[in-house]
């Protein structure tokens, strides 16, 4: 397990997302579009896209 730091905006969004995700049923996934696991490459692609848009450096 890895620990990551999250800003308050991200935490607020996750608090909103959690009850919406629970409507899909009992799953143990934080990020899922359709109750199936999201691939690591998809998550990394989204992170890379947003870091480029915001000018944040991505270290991997």
Summarize this entry quickly:
Helices cover 50% and strands 0% of the residues.
Description:
The protein is mainly α and 60 residues long. The protein has one domain. It has helices at 8-22, 40-54. The protein starts with 7 loop residues before the first helix and ends in a 6-residue tail after the last helix.
Overall outline? globular
Unreliable stretches: none
Computed Rg = 13 Å
Report, as a whole number of angstroms, the end-to-end distance: 16 Å
What is the H/E order? HH
Strand content: under 5%
Q: What is the strand tally?
A: 0
Largest sheet: none
Structural class: mainly alpha
Oligomer: single chain
How much is the average pLDDT? 79
- Figure out the total of helices: 2
Whole-number count of domains? 1
Give the helix level as a range of percent: 40-55%
């Amino acid at each position: 397990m890895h620990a990551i730091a999250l800003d308050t905006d991200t935490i607020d969004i996750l608090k909103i997302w959690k009850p919406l995700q629970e409507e899909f049923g009992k799953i143990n996934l934080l990020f899922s579009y359709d109750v199936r696991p999201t691939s690591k490459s998809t998550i990394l692609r989204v992170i890379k896209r947003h870091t480029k848009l915001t000018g944040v450096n991505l270290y991997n």
